[in-house]
């Protein structure tokens, strides 16, 4: 797991972070795309 996985998951699960904020955590390399799916239940996507 990434260094920030538990923190990001906790923020998202408690409603402090939106799904967009979790997406930004992937962009900033805090978490991986696979961890994004674990946290949100949705596939990670990039804007084309």
List keywords for this structure.
XkdX; 48 residues; 0% strand; 3 helices; XkdX family protein; mainly alpha
**Strand count, sense and closure of the main sheet?**
none
Shape from CA axes? Answer: globular
User: What's the rounded overall pLDDT mean?
Assistant: 95
Instruction: Specify the helix fraction band.
Output: 40-55%
Radius of gyration: 10 Å
User: How many structural domains?
Assistant: 1
Q: Which stretches are poorly predicted, pLDDT < 50 over at least 5 residues?
A: none
Coarse structural class: mainly alpha
Question: In what range is the share of β-strand residues?
Answer: under 5%
Question: How far is the first residue's CA from the last residue's CA?
Answer: 27 Å
Number of helices, where a helix is a run of at least 4 consecutive DSSP H or I residues: 3
Number of strands: 0
Q: How do the SSEs run, as a string of H and E?
A: HHH
Pfam families: Phage_XkdX
InterPro entries: XkdX (IPR010022)
Protein name: XkdX family protein
Describe the structure.
The chain has helices spanning 5-13, 19-27, 33-40. The longest helix has 9 residues, at 5-13. It has three helices and no strands. The chain is globular. With 48 residues, it is mostly helical. The termini are far apart. It has one domain (1-7, 14-48). This is XkdX family protein. InterPro entries: XkdX (IPR010022).
